[in-house]
TrEMBL record:
<dbReference type="InterPro" id="IPR051120">
    <property type="entry name" value="ABC_AA/LPS_Transport"/>
</dbReference>
<dbReference type="InterPro" id="IPR027417">
    <property type="entry name" value="P-loop_NTPase"/>
</dbReference>
<feature type="domain" description="ABC transporter">
    <location>
        <begin position="2"/>
        <end position="237"/>
    </location>
</feature>
<dbReference type="GO" id="GO:0016887">
    <property type="term" value="F:ATP hydrolysis activity"/>
</dbReference>
<dbReference type="Pfam" id="PF00005">
    <property type="entry name" value="ABC_tran"/>
</dbReference>
<keyword id="KW-0067">ATP-binding</keyword>
<dbReference type="InterPro" id="IPR003439">
    <property type="entry name" value="ABC_transporter-like_ATP-bd"/>
</dbReference>
<keyword id="KW-0813">Transport</keyword>
<dbReference type="GO" id="GO:0005886">
    <property type="term" value="C:plasma membrane"/>
</dbReference>
<dbReference type="InterPro" id="IPR003593">
    <property type="entry name" value="AAA+_ATPase"/>
</dbReference>
<dbReference type="GO" id="GO:0005524">
    <property type="term" value="F:ATP binding"/>
</dbReference>
<protein>
    <submittedName>
        <fullName>ATP-binding cassette domain-containing protein</fullName>
    </submittedName>
</protein>
<keyword id="KW-0547">Nucleotide-binding</keyword>
Length: 246
């Protein structure tokens, strides 16, 4: 179980304190699929990075399976079964796709068959990719799918995916949602997926709308989707006025 208790995160900018996350408390039970959605700049990625340990909260506490991980490093959290796929994945010159999957899996030597299984889940063919370097020669969609495959290879207890749909074509997206559905129905991991996609939102046990650094709404997809569709303009009064005037 993941518990966030009164998490806040602020930064100092030009003599001002900017509140990015404001007193967020949240519990995610084991094997649930929770989707964070909401307007750009609302705080979703920051929240995910705080869970992974890439960002340290200014206040609050994070418990994973009852253990306080707030001050643990990324590596320590990874060893406890937490994983995170970046919104914009990093590239690793000199590391092949096979190396990346092998490192992620923790096996000394990952078989080609196993690599193929992980790559197939994100719609990639192992023959074309295993020996490619995870460098700038890969397209945005390819690097995103390879990173998702590496998270699947990690077999983590908590998988956090940050906009897995970004840059991914429709065919691969369909394969990816099937993969999420499968992991969820097997009950093999807890998943937090940050997404703007209706198809992914509809898979969730719970949808949480993050906006302006707070949890604005939460509920089932049926409860939340209609709200999102009618509340698409966010908080800009000028823009709202202009669009409603059309
Ligand atoms: N270190 C920082 N310094 C200043 N501002 C920051 C910092 N980190 C995040 N922010 C701001 O905090 C807000 C939340 O950012 P975050 O990346 O969490 O949003 P998001 O909900 O993931 O948005 P998106 O849907 O565009 O990915 C943004 O306005 C961002 O510019
Ligand atoms: Mg983000």
């Amino acid at each position: 179980m993941l518990e966030l208790k009164h998490i806040s995160y602020s930064v100092r900018e030009a003599d001002e304190t900017l509140g990015i996350l404001k007193d967020i408390s949240l519990t995610v039970d084991d094997h649930k699929l929770v989707v964070f959605t909401g307007p750009n700049g609302g705080g979703k990625t920051t929240l995910a990075k705080i869970i992974m340990g890439l960002v340290t909260p200014t206040e609050g506490q994070i418990l994973w399976n009852g253990q306080d991980v707030t001050h643990m490093t990324i590596t320590e959290r990874a060893k406890l079964g937490i994983s995170y796929g970046f919104q914009q994945p990093p590239r690793f010159k000199g590391i092949t796709v096979r190396d990346l999957l092998t490192i992620a899996s923790g096996d000394e030597k990952l078989s080609k068959d196993k690599c193929c299984q992980y790559l197939t889940k994100v719609g990639l063919c192992a023959n074309d990719y295993l020996d490619r370097e995870v460098d700038v020669s890969l397209s945005g969609g390819e690097v995103k799918r390879i990173e998702i495959a590496s998270i699947l290879a990690r077999n983590a207890d908590l998988m956090i995916f940050d906009e897995p749909e970004a840059g991914i074509d429709l065919w691969s997206f369909a394969r990816l949602t099937e993969t999420f559905e499968q992991i969820h129905s097997q009950g093999s991991a807890t998943m937090i997926i940050i997404s703007h996609q209706e198809r992914i939102i509809s898979l969730a046990d719970e949808v949480i709308v993050v906006g302006d650094g707070t949890l604005r709404h939460r509920g089932t997809p049926k409860e939340i989707l209609p709200r999102i569709l009618t509340d698409t303009l966010g908080g800009c009064p000028v823009l709202n006025k202009e669009v409603h005037a059309l």
